């Protein structure tokens, strides 16, 4: 076979045993099997060509989605950073100490975020990923910028609600977009790269906010908390405009690929799960998809992981203070667990894709979360080192779970419309996890947060048991399909992972 250097990039090199390709006009399911009788998604293509195309997609898709999710995570969480700036100056200026005003401003974000997850997916195909996701990023950046000029807590709360409106498009949209580009055996790794890189970089958010608040306090007549919102808003707007220029659209519309490169992508998708052709989302389809119990089960798994993530994001400094660390160290020691989290996340993702260990990695990380939470909350006060290790285990377990659950939910379904609904509903449960973190980790119980700790452990235990039960169900369904007793997801060749 010729080497890549001997062929132009627009040539498709087929091995002798097959010449079959995907036809967008016909949308047929291409049969390509290896000697073991399994569907071979790469049959007929030179591995160097496939690797080159995949790398091209990776570089265009993953980095910009990572940056968009980074500013999304920073913007939804930086209210606590602004609140702490300059000795709680924002609390005094906006009178957030009265009643539950601060809690209302924090929680109001999640209401439109949850409600609009599913409707937001309809615009992806209508306007394209560039305009829909990039435009939403610009708009919530404007909301952040405006927060720097609010005069009362009502204005802040209203802008937080609008922030939830526009941020509702991103995570489910990004998960859906990734799932449309990659075969199932690559989803967990790509989802993890996208998610965990943003979480890693977010660890520097607190340091950045502290620097902005201290350096720019009283500059141009504005307090430090105002500058935090302004600077963060400007960064988000910039990333949004970059996304409009850089983000790739769906494979059938991708102009950065040649025609034959698009063929490689679409053929592999078609062979993998027979849904390369887009099917329009309709109200009837959405209602039908919502009757699938798996969507809600994956949502609960996602909620369990999100609850722990939000709890650590909102309350880790107080938890560390309860271990005996002073205020300065309580802030500094929140960063190392975030630096550690990418390690288990990437390892678990690679195992999930290579070994098809979907349930195994989800259950394992939920179990790690339980162990970590129990360690930092239940060990005695003189076991500070062990309790801090527990924070690492909990942070690594819950953060690794998010992309793994998202990927698993996308590998067990077919049709692009169902893929969009699945990603939206599952991610919406993350917002519910955020609300649960806010109401269960009560200030009256700090630093032990007994109610929140029990809820976190309980939901994580449910994720362990539920994921095992779902896997048993999937394996039983696969055996029925192997015996010809059942067709899964409308495709005789489809099997659950």
UniProtKB/TrEMBL annotation:
Annotated Major facilitator superfamily (MFS) profile domain residues: 61-478
Origin superkingdom: Eukaryota
Biased composition (Basic and acidic residues): 8-36
Species, as recorded: Cutaneotrichosporon cavernicola
Annotated GO MF terms: transmembrane transporter activity
Protein name, as recorded: Major facilitator superfamily (MFS) profile domain-containing protein
Annotated compartments: Membrane
UniProtKB keywords: Membrane, Transmembrane, Transmembrane helix, Transport
Membrane topology field: Multi-pass membrane protein
Keyword Transmembrane: yes
Region span, Disordered: 1-36
């Amino acid at each position: 076979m010729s080497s890549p250097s001997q062929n132009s990039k627009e040539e498709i090199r087929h091995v002798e045993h097959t010449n079959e390709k995907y036809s967008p006009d016909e949308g047929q399911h291409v049969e390509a099997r290896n000697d073991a009788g399994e569907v071979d998604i790469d049959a007929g293509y030179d591995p160097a060509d496939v690797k080159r195309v995949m790398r091209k997609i990776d570089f265009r898709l993953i980095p910009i989605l990572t940056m968009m999710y980074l500013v999304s995570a920073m913007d939804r969480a930086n209210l606590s950073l602004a609140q702490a700036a300059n000795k709680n100056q924002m609390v005094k200026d906006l009178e957030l100490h009265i009643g539950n005003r601060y809690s209302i401003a924090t929680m109001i974000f999640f209401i439109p975020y949850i409600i609009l997850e599913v409707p937001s997916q309809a615009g992806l195909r209508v306007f394209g990923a560039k305009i829909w996701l990039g435009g939403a990023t610009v708009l919530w950046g404007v909301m952040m910028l405006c927060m720097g000029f609010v005069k009362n807590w009502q204005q802040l709360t209203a802008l937080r609600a609008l922030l939830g409106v526009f941020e509702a498009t991103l995570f489910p949209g990004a998960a859906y977009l990734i799932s449309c580009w990659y075969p199932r055996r690559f989803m967990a790794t790509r989802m993890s790269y996208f998610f965990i890189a943003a979480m890693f970089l977010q660890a520097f958010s607190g340091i950045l906010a502290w620097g902005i608040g201290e350096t720019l306090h009283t500059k141009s007549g504005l307090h430090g908390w105002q500058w935090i919102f302004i600077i963060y808003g400007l960064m988000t707007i910039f990333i949004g405009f970059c996304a409009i220029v850089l983000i790739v659209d769906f494979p059938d519309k991708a102009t950065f690929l040649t025609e034959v490169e698009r063929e490689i992508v679409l053929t592999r998708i078609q062979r993998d799960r027979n849904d390369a052709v887009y099917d329009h989302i309709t109200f009837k389809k959405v209602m039908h998809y919502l009757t699938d119990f798996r969507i809600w089960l994956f949502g609960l798994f996602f909620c369990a992981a999100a609850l722990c993530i939000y709890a650590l994001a909102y309350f880790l400094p107080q938890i560390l203070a309860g271990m005996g660390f002073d205020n300065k160290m309580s802030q500094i020691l929140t960063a190392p667990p975030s630096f550690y989290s990418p390690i288990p996340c990437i390892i678990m993702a690679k195992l999930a894709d290579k070994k098809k260990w979907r349930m195994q990695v989800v259950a394992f990380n939920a179990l790690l979360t339980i162990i970590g939470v129990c360690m930092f909350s239940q060990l005695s006060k003189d076991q500070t080192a062990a309790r801090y290790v527990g924070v690492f285990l909990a942070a690594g377990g819950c953060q690794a779970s998010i992309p793994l659950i998202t990927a698993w939910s996308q590998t067990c379904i077919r049709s692009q419309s169902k893929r969009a609904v699945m990603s939206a509903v599952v991610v919406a449960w993350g917002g519910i996890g955020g609300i649960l973190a806010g109401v269960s980790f009560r200030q009256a119980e700090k630093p032990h947060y007994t109610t929140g700790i029990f809820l976190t452990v309980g939901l994580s235990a449910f994720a362990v048991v539920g994921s095992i039960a779902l896997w048993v169900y999937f394996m039983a369904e696969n055996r029925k399909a192997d015996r010809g007793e059942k067709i899964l997801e409308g495709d005789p060749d489809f099997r659950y992972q």
